[in-house]
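W.,

You were right to be curious about this one. When I first looked at the sequence I had no strong expectations either way, so I just let the prediction run and decided to look at it fresh. Below is the sequence, 230 residues in total, followed by the output.
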Amino acid sequence: MGYSKRIETLCSLLKRTDVFADVGCDHGYCSQYMLENGLCEKAILSDISKGSLAKAETLLAPYIRQGKAVSVLGDGFFGVPESVGEVLIAGMGGSEIISILSDKKYGFMPRSFVFQPMHDGEKLRRYILENGGYIERDFTFEDVKFYDVICGGNVKYHGQVCDERPYSDAEYEFGRENLTLMGEAFVQRTKKQIANVEKYLKRPNLQEESRVELLKKKERLEGVLAGEIK
């Protein structure tokens, strides 16, 4: 079946593994991709929503009957073993993903992961790098809306397989790969953010304090586009 560009992008980043976990699986399309292409021996479909999990169970019913997929109704990593080879968490806020990773009972830093935070990407990058993880890919893409996707893994299992330089504040905020390669989607999103700031600056009765903050934000975003902020 044809997937959306967002799902296709996420699937393209998934690696071959023994056990794959799709946490917050919703429709289950990414697990379907992994199983149909022989990229995992088993898929764990996890969601806190009974209705969402039911959609994935219907889509992947043949694999569930064969024992190649198992569904888990629960929050976060409930029912997901730490030995799982790769974890996908997409469509949640960065703070929600951090809550899953840091949960005292079930949380852990996955061996390999693909995270697609809807917001709070900066917080998620900081958490990953400060808690035994590394970041391998980290970029913006567009599918009607703009999305960030962060891929990496656990240093304990893979070693430090990427650039070991400490992140700058700007790299935490915007993503190292975005600032280095300045991909089209990242550039377009930044231009849109600048346009939004300019729109707010034209509002009548704008408080001076707000005006100063907006001008600072505009200057920073323009600095990013000019390659002055790294």
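Here's what jumped out at me. The chain has a mean pLDDT of 95. And, maybe more interesting for your project: The chain is about 45% helix and 20% strand.

Coffee later to discuss?

I.
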